[in-house]
């Protein structure tokens, strides 16, 4: 820290309790009272430096004891002690920590050049401009002292000058600063090497990141910090850098941000009350630039969680929800699980808040030209990655909140249906969430189960999900039948694809006859490997087909039993009304039978082609061996 020495006389001031005495050998003829402190001094040194004190002494000349009260002097007794030493010519040291005190006190006491040459106003002003404001650390220290000296420091433009100095340095690349700005980190010579005690070491200084000043400015009071940030914005600093500094400041003074996650390595300063924390959070929300991605979604969700705990204003909470909605695709499931802090809500998690965040995301997606593409576009287009990521995130969130027995069906259904159909390439995540909800809410009626399962598109379930759903006793019978039907369709499509591959392999073999002998050997080795892979796939399909045949047979038997009971009980029975008209099980059972025959025929054809392909491979291998 820089400093400048003033005066040359030895220290002659002594303190006794709440009083200061100047031991020059002469009795004191004036007493200056500053708050609870008394200074027993002499008139001449004071009036020779200060026009204000000269007038005060003259006004008290007719009194027996000359007593001057300075209760409104900037900095109080601390400032006047230094001023008194300066008036007596005693050695004092100007530093960034006291220069603002002396500058404000000297202005109040009118210690100008007209009164005395090299007076305190000129000395402190020169040190402030030529030393303090040229250095980052010193400017920061001086600005911190201004909080105790308002509005005097404001009237003298000291606050503005310190902020301008800091803003100009923070908005400049620190790797281009050079000495003495590098006192923030490593001192360096004009040649660029690191200095140790003023001697060049030859080592190169390390590079600075754009966030090098975050920790330093976080020591400022929020009013000063706010003005500094506003000045930086006016100078064109990037929004993401501003957001990074605001995030650092929030983590330091809002303990709620660090309770659940250790976000960064920010030292926490828990000195604010809940009301002060709430006001600070609302101010930070107002300062955050409104741009997507400038602050991480984890931090924004942490701010939102803290705002709910502190009961921040609805405007603050709404703004944070909109910011999160703009980048919901970057959120994680753990951060999205916002606890419910309201006593009026029964659910464990704040589902309404997540629903509002999702609505903000969907509104932004539509505003950016989001349409309803087909399934192939969803699977192929990289531009749909955000909406598909959000759909997967919401499905995971639904699965997490589903075990909550207080979660009502309409609320669960509303959140699940809010995701557009085109956003889900597969409905496996939604099926899992519905299954968990049905398991936790076993008292739901059949109609409610039917209503919930209408959210599912059975054609968008994977084979694994279909297998699970076909054996799921919690699902309505209609859904199980649909799953079995579409599962067989998927299996037929898969088998047809395998046969197409087999035909392509068979047709490609003669084309390779014109290739050189060495190339043929490598090509047929590849064909053998492809043949083995195809065989393994067919074996798996045979096993799956056998399982499906058993399931279809079981379904036919159940349907026949239901039909038999209906015929015995009369034409108005449950089976005669529900099965044919509502579920269509008879038609579906016929479809199962027809598909069994088709699949078996496809299986036999595939086996024949496989044997034919194997024979050809063996023949070619023998031919290659003979040629060798």
From TrEMBL:
Coiled-coil zones: 531-565
Residues covered by the NPH3 domain: 211-490
Keywords: Coiled coil, Ubl conjugation pathway
This protein's pathway: Protein modification; protein ubiquitination
Domain BTB: 28-96
Record keyword Transmembrane helix present: no
InterPro entries membership: BTB/POZ_dom, NPH3/RPT2-like, NPH3_dom, SKP1/BTB/POZ_sf
Pfam family, one: BTB
Family stated for the protein in its record: Belongs to the NPH3 family.
Protein's name according to its UniProt entry: BTB/POZ domain-containing protein
